[in-house]
Amino acid sequence: MLQESVLIEKNEEIAPGLYFLKIRNEQMAGEAQPGKFIHINLGTIYDPLLRRPMSILNAQGETLSVLYQVVGRGTRIMTRFRPGDEIDVLGPLGNGFEIEDSGQNFLIGGGVGAAPLVFLAHRLPKKGVDNKFFLGMRERELLFIKDFLPEEVEFFSSHENSPRGEAKQVTDLLPPHLKTKKKTSLYCCGPEGMYREIAGLCNDCSDFSIQVSIDRRMGCGVGTCLGCAVKVKKPPREEPQIVRACVEGPVFRWQEVNIDGT
Ligand SMILES: Cc1cc2nc3c(=O)[nH]c(=O)nc-3n(C[C@H](O)[C@H](O)[C@H](O)COP(=O)(O)OP(=O)(O)OC[C@H]3O[C@@H](n4cnc5c(N)ncnc54)[C@H](O)[C@@H]3O)c2cc1C
Ligand code: FES
What we know:
The protein is an alpha/beta fold. The protein has 3 domains: 2-93, Translation factors (Elongation Factor Tu (Ef-tu), domain 3), CATH 2.40.30.10; 97-213, Rossmann fold, CATH 3.40.50; 217-262, no CATH class. Helix content is 16%, strand content 35%. FE2/S2 (inorganic) cluster (FES) is lined by residues 218-221, 223-228, 244, 246.
């Protein structure tokens, strides 16, 4: 984990309210892994005080990129970053996805939350493996995510306002793909309700593993403020325990976080 002043190469609005930010730092890009995140200082001293966490969309050579949605004051400040500016970035933080040895990989993303799955798509094994990306959208503009994917990854999308008979939710896309005898790994990024629905669909699929990225408001990002608590149950321990999404997560096994088993 590094704390560095990094150079901004690009900060472009690529769809309304959605920005692509590219920064240059060789060591940070080298340490980046799918599912990890960076913690961005907004360049102000006390207000807003806290950094903003952003998942790594991709890392190549000396550069690292993120895709962010403008939702509040902090992300609005980020839109004012200009190429050539230097910003203070902490990272890469968190644990990232564990890439498994499977016959099929399903990458399932809801909205801009799908960003870390783009990076993962580039790191998955390609030979003899089916890699499928499922994107659920509220805004059709998010379709540009497809352009960031390696060409061998099959892409499927749903849209909340699709006409009757077409997939509205990302989970509507999955059933035909779940009828498989191949060992399958699911990597999911989106709201927790989406994870619950996915797990419900996979109830009869014993050879499936499900990893999910858990979203928590983050203060420090490095394990000291305990603001990002997640309750988990990890065998062999029988009692639930509290862990930190910024250090022990943000990626968890669904069975570990779904402690009620619902
Ligand atoms: C590990 C991690 C990775 C993330 N990766 C990305 C990413 O790749 N791209 C991206 O656009 N966003 C990502 N987020 C969410 C992003 O950090 C927040 O949207 C951002 O911090 C909001 O800052 P703000 O000051 O603009 O909004 P605020 O003024 O703080 O909040 C505005 C609105 O955004 C909501 N919000 C704030 N924080 C979060 C959060 N953590 N998750 C969801 N909603 C939030 C608030 O509830 C509020 O409605 C990630 C969050 C985490 C924890
Ligand atoms: S954000 Fe401070 S402990 Fe996780």
